[in-house]
Amino acid sequence: TQFDLKDLLLEVIDQLEHKASKRKVDLVFQYDEKEDYITSADKQKIYRVCQNLIFNAVKYNNNQGKVKVSLKTSKHNLHVEIKDNGQGIPPEDLKRIFERFYRVEKSRNKKEGGTGLGLAIVKHILEGHKSKISVSSTVGKGSIFSFSLPLVKQVLPEGKEKQDVN
Ligand code: ATP
Ligand code: MG
């Protein structure tokens, strides 16, 4: 189905807002009001992807931490980036976080609940959409998770060609 990825992200963020404020984490969303972010994908599944990635960024953060979600377009794709300035993930763990039930020792110690299934599901869902999840992380600095989905160009009514005004 086709839907606006910006609206979906707004919903996810709205739903996670109180979890973020409880942990004193600042959750921000950056996108361009003038853009359309229509994609074609399984909406429920992409909701789960966004929910897990954003909740992880909130959970594995610090007090006064910050999570920045940004949505951008390129010619044929939408790009979602979830950036946190939390604890980061050591290189030896980074290779394994997408395995089922894998959790970084430090996270277990943090007493944050979780089964270690979230990222395995994220990876599986994105693969089913011919997409993939990317991650880069620095211990003590934070992590960036990102993925892309196809951009669906909206067909404008006859005679109403979209023009560049510049
Ligand atoms: P679940 O998502 O099933 O409730 P979980 O969050 O522990 O549990 P995953 O989402 O699969 O499981 O994440 C796996 C592990 O990767 C986490 O336990 C945590 O150690 C690490 N991790 C994931 N996201 C981040 C992040 N943004 N910053 C630091 N560590 C992270
Ligand atoms: Mg998780």
From TrEMBL:
Cellular component annotations (GO), alphabetically ordered: plasma membrane
Listed A to Z, the keywords are: Kinase, Membrane, Phosphoprotein, Transferase, Transmembrane, Transmembrane helix, Two-component regulatory system
- State the signal peptide span: none
Q: Does the keyword Transmembrane apply?
A: yes
Please list the residue ranges annotated as the Histidine kinase domain.
Answer: 1-153
Q: Does the keyword Kinase apply?
A: yes
Provide the GO MF annotations for this entry: phosphoprotein phosphatase activity; phosphorelay sensor kinase activity
Source domain of life is Bacteria
GO biological process terms, semicolon-separated:
cellular response to phosphate starvation
Protein name in the entry: histidine kinase
